[in-house]
Amino acid sequence: MPQPQMLQAHQFTAIYARYDAIGQHTLGLRNLMIDMGWEVTTFAQQSYQDTDITVLNYQTHAEHPDPDIAIYHLSTTSAVSDYLLELKTPLVLNYHNITPGMFFAGWDTNLANDLERARHILRSLAHTATAGIADSEYNAAELMEHGIGKIHIVPPLYATPIANTPSSPNNTTTLDSTPKLLFVGRLAPNKCIEALLGCCAMLKTKWPEVSLTLIGNPMIPRYTKALENYTQELAITANVRFLGTVSTQIRNTEYAAANVYVSASKHEGFCVPLLEAMQMGLPIVAHAAAAVPETVQDAGVLLKTNDALCLASAVQRVCVDTGLRAELIAKGHARAKQFNSTQTQQRMIQALHKIAAQVA
User: Fold this and answer.
1) What is the pLDDT of residues 66-124, one digit of tens each?
2) I want to staple 195 with a disulfide (CB 3.0 to 4.6 A). Which of 53, 188, 264, 278 is the partner?
């Protein structure tokens, strides 16, 4: 068996997309392992890539020599899971959480069933896995529940660091402009985007020019259409922007232009946009569900409910209470520094060396 610094690693993911959080983590982990002296090849079922790296279709994997270790970035249903169940190579599950299918029932039955199947396969993969990597205690607990004993908790890596864009005038302790709300993430039922729309409508009674910008993949047409219809019903069409998937540059521009980050999500395994918001000096108002409290800690206004009225009340407080706003910005910056790339990379290097020793 080669020494740890000379290991051959194959990464697998269902979908490689350059600008999403898992794509960034996959690329960041690849670069880190190469810097460690490892040989790395990345495979995916689907790939939406630019020219950053070569990503091979997983169906060609059998044509390659067996690696020393396989790392699977597990977050959704994929034929990759079935393939890896048959692979004899030591397997490491890098678990990014699988959203429960119940959130999608009524919107996309096939997807709901697929996600439940993915969670079932997770249990099977856990029984064969040599070790696990989780980006939060919340995700680690799920891996432990399924029987993985060796779990390393490491926050997500960034191949492209969040831009150190100076906070815009909106992201200061005083707020002289109308609230500009931002949400980043898939437009999926578990994100409860309708609550954000309701929040925007309530804020409009005080600030007619309030805005809500939604950045993320509109993954379920029926749900997206329902959101658009609800926007019309609430008479906030002119106040809401659906931007879809955007580049890192545009995303960072929107972070700088906003003055409150809002989330009504009921299920998050880590939630990278919360980290991005804190780094950009953007106060957070969020539903305290799943891993959100772990990620944010005391650096945001966390609510026990995602009721639109409660969200609007909290946003209003952040906008008018300069003391609270200053406190949130300062605590957000401090919390974001705990996830800086150097510390996260060192934690991942330590985890990889332990895993390498385990499979040697």
Assistant:
1) 999 999 999 998 999 999 999 999 999 999 999 999 999 999 999 999 999 999 999 99
2) 264
For residue 158, give Cα distances in angstroms to 32, 136, 154, 215: 10, 16, 12, 19
Question: In the chain, pLDDT over 90 holds for what percent of residues?
Answer: 86
Say if residue 1's pLDDT is above 50: no
The domains located in the chain, with CATH, are 4-155+340-359 (3.40.50.2000), 169-337 (3.40.50.2000)
- pLDDT tens column, 179-192: 999 999 999 999 99
Q: Are 167 and 76 in contact (CB under 8 A)?
A: no
* pLDDT for res 20: 83
